[in-house]
Amino acid sequence: MVAESASYSASASQIHPRCNIAEAAGLALGAVALIELFGTCIDLFDCIAIGRSFDHDSKILSVKLDVERALLLYWSEKIGLFKRDAEERFSQLKETPLIGKLLQEIHTLLSDGDRLRQQYGLEPIQDSDSRLKIVFSKLRIKALNEEVNHRKSLKSRSKDTPKDITPLKRTLWAIHDKNKFENLVQDLSYFVKSLVRLLPSVAVSGNKQMIQNDLEGVRDEEYLNLLTKATQSTQLYFTRLTRDRLDFLQTTTEKRILEALWFRTMDDRKEKVEDAHPETFHWALNPGHKMPWDSLPDFLESASGIYWIRGKPGCGKSTLMKYLFGEEKTSALLRAWAGGTSFTLASFFFWYYQEESHLVLAPKLVGLGIAFSHTAQAWLSR
To answer: Domain spanning 12-205 has what CATH number?
Structure first.
C-alpha cells in the first residue's frame, strides 16, 4: 500500500486529511444526509463486478476492494453513524463537514464513468448471472440498506441533502487494466484511512471482533484464500483472522466427512476376527528363508502399489491382516518408507454376507479411495 508520505494519483491528491475545514463548509451535512451518502458509497462498491472467468490477480484486486468496503463499514459503526443521537452529535462535531467531503470523494471515485474508464482501467459490462456473488460483510450491508431505507423516509423533511449527489446508476464495471485498478484501490484506501484519522478515539479501537463476525458468514474457501493474499502485505491482523477461519472450516469439513462415513457396526467384523497366536504369523514380517512370494517387509519399507494376499475361504486372511495392522514392526517399516513424513495406517474389515450397512458404504469407500488416489498422484507429479 502507498505510504502516507508518497505521492497519490490525481484523484486522491484533491484532498488531504489536514485540509482547511472551511473548504468543506459547503457540504455541511446532517446525520440523515450523511447516512444516505454513506449508503450510496457502499452500493457503488458493488458495481465493480468480478466474473468467474477472471484471472487470479483480478480476483485478488476485487477482494482488496471488499476489504476497503469492510473497513468503511467498521468506521461507520465505530462513530455511531446509525445511532439515534447521531443527528445531534454530528451537528456539533467540527469534523462533520470534512467527513462529508471525504465521503463525497469516495462517491466521485466510484461513480465518475470517464475517470473509472480512463484513469482506473475499468470497462462497462452487461450484468451476468455468471459473475461472482460472494460478498464480505454481507449481514452488515443488509443492515445498512435497511437503515438507509428507513432514513429515506425522513428525506422529505430534511433540507441538508447535497444537491450534487446524483442517484445511483447500476452500471457494472469490470477490471480491464489491473495496474490502473490497483491505483483505485490505493486511492480508496487513502480516503478510508483519512476518515479514521479524523477521530483519534475511533482509530485506536480495534476491528478484530467485527472482522471475526464477518468471517463467520463466509464458508467459501476459495474466497478466503483470496482474502488472505489480498491482505497479507497491508492488513496483517485481517490475514491472521482469515487463516484462523480457514483452519476452522477445514477441520469442520474433515469432521463432517468422517461423521458421514461412520456407522454403528463399522468395527464389528474386525472385533470378531480372532487374534492370532503370537507365533502363527511371525514369518510374515520376519521371513527366515526364501519364500515363494515377494517379501512383505521389503514392500512395506520401500515399495509402492498394492500387495495382494489371497487364499481359500477360512484360511486365515482376515486374521493375518488384523495381525499385520496391530504389529509395531508394520508401523516401523512404514516409517522407514515415509522417510520422516507423516502417514496414515487405516483398516476396514468387510463381512462376507450382505449386511445392508456394508453394501451401502462399500461403493462410497471405493469412490473415496479412487478420488484420494487420483489426488495423491496429481500431487506427487507436481
So the answer is: 1.20.120
If one compares 44 and 4, the residue with the highest pLDDT of the two is: 44
Cβ neighbours of residue 31 closer than 8 Å, sequence gap 6 or more? 81, 86, 87, 89, 90, 91
Distances (CA, A) of 309 to 133, 312, 317, 334, 351: 52, 11, 7, 18, 17
Q: What is the pLDDT of residues 259-279, one digit of tens each?
A: 777 767 777 778 888 888 877
| Residue 317: half-sphere exposure toward Cβ, Cα within 13 Å | 11
- If you average pLDDT over residues 151-155, what whole number do you get? 62
Q: Which residues, 6 or more positions from 305, have their beta carbon under 8 angstroms from its beta carbon?
A: none
CB 276 within 8 A of CB 322: yes
Whether pTM exceeds 0.70? no
Mean pLDDT to the nearest integer, 228-257: 87
CA–CA separation, 3 vs 204, rounded Å? Answer: 19
Torsion of CA 226, 232, 237, 241, to 10 degrees: 30
Report the C-alpha gap between 70 and 137 in whole angstroms.
Answer: 6
123: enclosing H helix or E strand: strand 122-125
